[in-house]
Write a structure and sequence with these properties.
Keywords: ATP-binding, Nucleotide-binding, Repeat, Transport
Pfam families: ABC_tran
Number of strands: 20
Largest sheet: 6 strands, mixed
Bound molecules: adenosine-5'-triphosphate
CATH topology of the largest domain: Rossmann fold
Strand content: 15-25%
CATH superfamily of the largest domain: P-loop containing nucleotide triphosphate hydrolases
Distance between the termini: 40 Å
Protein name: Nucleoside ABC transporter ATP-binding protein
GO molecular function, one term: ATP binding
């Protein structure tokens, strides 16, 4: 921390939204120069609202912000950027048909910071940061060619180009594989050594404890506590986040019953080739029986995302066969798979799983329409109300537009809708990412219950090995497109699975 004077002081900040939602209630904290602070809290605790106030997106109802001791009012993000506060969100803001350099130069110019966007400076910063991250980035590369990780890296570069004193990461690293997240930490660490500060919103307590100097916890809009890293423990943080509900968190294996001897999803010798001619799915053979959860372990980018997309009929299969309850669905498109009663939780669900301008009800109704034409509003409303109750979605009612929900609450709507829809099978990729631990445990229990009592087949890919072990009956591992297994989840050795994931 070094100096005593805070870079940012948040004083008595309160913010309510229409419908009587108190998102923030008299919140106070400081951020010092040269420190990394993590902001934690359950879904809907007020984390995003807090950082949006710091970034001039929302105006507080009450309270004040001080920057280096001076009272400051932000009416928009440009005001915040001028004071050295820059936010990076979960969804990259790049324009696909422009190069990296053009994106940065034009992006900064539009914001009114053209002077900071000289091509030579942009190229220099790209060189420096990509070197630190160990990723080679050519400024002439078109944005559409970049991976999600590379796009997020460009977003962070943008913050440095804007001379940020405080970089806010609003779950910006959530979708990155651990390996790559750690590379970003190195960059933040160097930034910190040079006096820069970071405020990171994350759901992972272990991550907060690994990277942050201090941890701030919000609960139901109030400041619940602030811990220095040395005094923080998982238990203490959970207690501050969830109170008594912390007792519900468990990573014990959920009880199974023997699956039925009936095939639900059968994947035979499946090959998916990417645009460069590489086999991203390489001769996969996987069987999911009714009543069973089959988990695919693997680090991100091992081919599991494409495997699931192929089963859903969302991408082309080059060889092999996929059958769902006896129907050959290979290359027959997503419509047929959906007609068979298959629920789907996609990768980056906030982008691929929901239309944010529409209401909760409309987002549920689209999936339950008959013959893809007639919307059955009464049925959809019933489902929407049930989903909101069961998953404790924080919103006024089912007519609430999805875009004003917190990220975790949007995820609850998607998970709830897809589980309601899953009559024969559920295909899920990281179904609890963006959910707090207590909600994640609840969702895993519901998925398991659907398999055990609803007798559906569940094909689950997750980068979270705890989740794989907690839910699965059978485990496969994917690594560089190849599939290893099956392993019986009860007897499988974690070390063996981990080895196969990274070998
Ligand atoms: N524009 C808005 N209009 C109405 N309510 C809002 C708006 N933005 C946020 N809220 C509500 O304020 C509360 C806090 O939301 P916020 O997004 O700050 O939570 P969060 O801690 O970031 O949660 P998560 O972990 O789920 O992302 C939620 O109940 C949310 O629905």
């Amino acid at each position: 921390m070094g100096e005593n004077k805070p870079l940012v002081s948040v004083r008595n900040i309160s913010k309510s939204f229409p419908g009587g939602i108190i998102a923030l209630d008299n919140v106070n904290f400081d951020i010092y120069r040269g420190e990394i602070v993590a902001l934690l809290g359950e879904n809907g605790a007020g984390k995003s609202t807090m950082v949006k106030i710091l970034y001039g997106v929302y105006f507080p109802d009450e309270g004040e912000i001080f920057i280096e001791g001076r009272k400051t009012v932000f009416y928009n993000p440009v005001d915040a950027i001028k004071q050295g506060i820059v936010m990076v969100s979960q969804i990259p803001q790049l324009i696909d048909r422009l190069s990296i350099r053009e994106n940065l130069v034009i992006g900064l110019s539009i914001l009114g910071f053209g002077k900071l966007a000289r091509t030579s400076r942009v190229d220099k910063v790209i060189g420096e940061i990509s070197g630190k991250l160990g990723m080679k980035i050519d400024p002439d590369t078109m944005a559409w060619k970049l991976t999600y990780t590379q796009k997020q890296m460009i977003e962070i570069l943008r913050a440095f180009l804007l001379n940020a004193k405080l970089v806010i990461l609003d779950e910006a690293l959530t979708y990155l594989p651990l390996e790559e997240r750690r590379r970003f930490y190195t960059v933040l660490d160097t930034f910190k050594k040079n006096g820069g500060s970071s405020l990171i919103i994350t759901h992972k307590i272990t991550e907060a404890m690994e990277i942050a100097d201090r941890i701030i916890v919000l609960r139901r809009g109030k400041l619940s506590g602030i811990l220095r890293r040395e005094e923080a423990s998982i238990e203490k943080i959970r207690e501050l986040m969830f109170g008594e509900d912390a007792g519900k968190i468990t990573y014990e294996r959920l009880a199974s019953v023997a699956p039925l001897n009936e095939n639900c999803i059968s994947i035979e010798d499946l090959v998916v080739v990417d645009e460069y001619g590489r086999r991203i799915v390489d001769n996969a053979r996987i069987l999911v029986r009714k009543g069973e959860v089959v988990g695919i372990a693997g680090v991100a980018g091992s081919g599991q995302k494409e495997l699931l997309q192929a089963v859903m009929g969302l991408i082309r299969v080059d060889k092999g066969r996929i059958t769902i309850i006896g129907n050959d669905v290979t290359n027959k498109g997503v419509g047929l798979v959906r007609q068979l009663g298959v629920g789907y939780i996609p990768d980056i669900p906030l982008r691929h799983g929901v239309s944010s301008d529409n209401t909760i009800l409309e987002n549920i109704a689209v999936l339950f329409q008959k013959d893809r034409a007639i919307i059955r509003w009464d049925e959809a409303r019933e489902i929407a109300v049930r989903v909101m109750k069961k998953y404790q979605v924080l919103a006024r009612n089912e007519e609430t537009p999805v875009k004003i929900l917190s990220g975790g609450n949007i995820m609850k709507v998607i998970v709830g809708r897809e589980l309601e829809y899953s009559k024969t099978a559920l295909i899920a990729y990281n179904p609890t990412r963006a959910l707090d631990e207590v909600t994640a445990v609840m969702v895993r229990r519901i998925i398991k219950d659907k398999a055990v009592n609803g007798k559906i087949g569940v094909l689950l890919a997750s980068e979270d090995l705890d989740e794989i072990f907690q839910l699965s009956d059978t485990i496969y591992v994917m690594n560089s497109g190849k599939v290893y297994g099956p392993f019986n989840a009860e007897t499988a050795k974690r070390s063996e699975i981990e080895h196969l994931m990274v070998m």
